[in-house]
Design brief:
2 copies of one chain form a homodimer. The first copy, chain A, is mainly beta and about 260 residues long. Chain A has 3 helices and 16 strands. In chain A, the strands form 3 sheets. The first copy, chain A, has an 11-stranded antiparallel β-sheet. Strand 13 (about 215-225) of chain A pairs antiparallel with strand 8 (about 110-115) of chain B.
């Protein structure tokens, strides 16, 4: 079995991932979905350390095309009694295509939040999300995403809720990293003048375990200056407990 | 003049910083304040690239004691027409004490937010913040922080607003990175069972320029699982325009 059906084998420091259509999105060309890069970084950090992801920051340097063989290598930067910091690099051939750093440690416990989860219908009452480009539909083979609602703070606030779960064999932490990459989904829908929103970097911070595989994404855009935008995703489990906080910086490529 | 009175000299790739009491905080021992590490990373990335910080993620590995000579080195990972990605490493002697990655590019323009800035009194009507430990008071030599208010979403939501400005000669982007490190301020005040809150990592994403040097910090704790906590700071300028979004992961060290 190939990744992500089978996770990376624990104990190694370098891992390989064959980019295939079910891992790809894209409007004009098929490329590895950023969320899968985050999940691969999370899986590599966990396989190399034997610990659980707590925090991951990744920078996206080059498009990773369908068909590429991605090499994900890890370097321990600090190994402590409880926590380890790993540097992660992804290359295709000799080209560095993404980098990151990951803190791993004890598995997250049951967390408490300082605010309440959005109130939305359960996943089985929600419709699947739509995809802007036909090239992106391969993603549905491994990821089930439903439009959960539009609970907003104000009428014109760009915010939406999605249910998401992976159908691969990856760990909880990898699934959280994967589904956290949904700020571009919202940006593309509320910014009609924007053609694409390539992600410059993303961070995801895990705060608590999830009761089940369905995760609720509360997606918001914070601000933009016309050329760059910042947004975030608060991730909850199906019981309304906090799971993670994620942020992204995107470049805004305008329509001609 | 020593840093930060004089910024790092543009064109280099490696920079030195003498850790001194006015850069330090600490309850039991005096250490370089995390915000100054972020500012040094921002300044190094800008000096090495000639570009403006847009996004910075940093991991804090070891305490950096007062008196240490910090070496901050940068490596260009990608140099594009508009944006460059730099890796940043900080060492004291042979010890790696902090690492990070920074996207630099065009200076941020005037940004628009999707929500409104908190409504608080102006800085000159606000009292200076307090410091828990006498060792931390050196920080006031270069940083003016005022308690602006406690506009909350709900009565028990841990959230506070601070005005902050630097009185050093650093750039706008360095000041934003520096003052973004105020999640521990809030965590220490709302978690009386916690002795210290060492930051594991922090990210700051700049979205817009500021009209003046005073910055309004809207500080929130999102969630914790008893051992780790995540919080964030939304940064606004004095005219209510969005400047940056920051997030932190902290370890919670409990009182004996």
């Amino acid at each position: 079995m190939s990744w992500p059906d089978a996770p990376f084998i624990p104990g190694g420091t370098t891992f390989e991932l064959q980019v295939e259509p079910r891992l790809c999105g894209g409007i004009e060309e098929r490329s590895l979905f950023g969320g899968w890069t985050l999940a691969a970084f999370a899986d590599a950090a966990q396989a190399a350390s034997g610990r659980h992801l707590r925090s991951l920051s990744a920078a996206f340097i080059e498009r990773i095309p369908d068909g590429a063989l991605l090499t994900v290598s890890t370097t321990a930067q600090r190994t402590g009694g409880q926590m380890s910091l790993l540097r992660v690099e992804a290359t295709t051939g000799d080209t560095l295509v993404a980098t990151g750093q990951a803190w791993v440690g004890p598995r997250a416990g049951t967390a408490q939040a300082t605010s309440a989860a959005p109130v939305v219908p359960p996943p089985d009452e929600c419709e699947p999300r739509s995809y802007a480009g036909v090239l992106t539909r391969g993603l549905t083979a491994l990821m089930d995403v439903r439009v959960a609602g539009v609970e907003r703070g104000s009428a014109d606030e760009p915010r939406t809720q999605l249910w998401a779960r992976l159908t691969s064999g990856l760990s909880f932490e990898c699934a959280v990293a994967m589904v956290s990459d949904h700020v571009p989904y919202l940006a593309m829908r509320v910014m009609p003048h924007v053609r694409t929103t390539p992600t410059l970097d993303a961070s995801v911070r895990i705060v608590g375990e999830a009761a089940a595989d369905w995760l609720l994404l509360d997606v918001r855009l914070d601000a933009d200056d016309g050329g760059y935008a910042v947004g975030r995703v608060s991730i909850w489990d199906a019981d309304g407990r906090p799971v993670a906080e994620a942020q992204q910086t995107m470049r805004l490529v305008l329509r001609a």
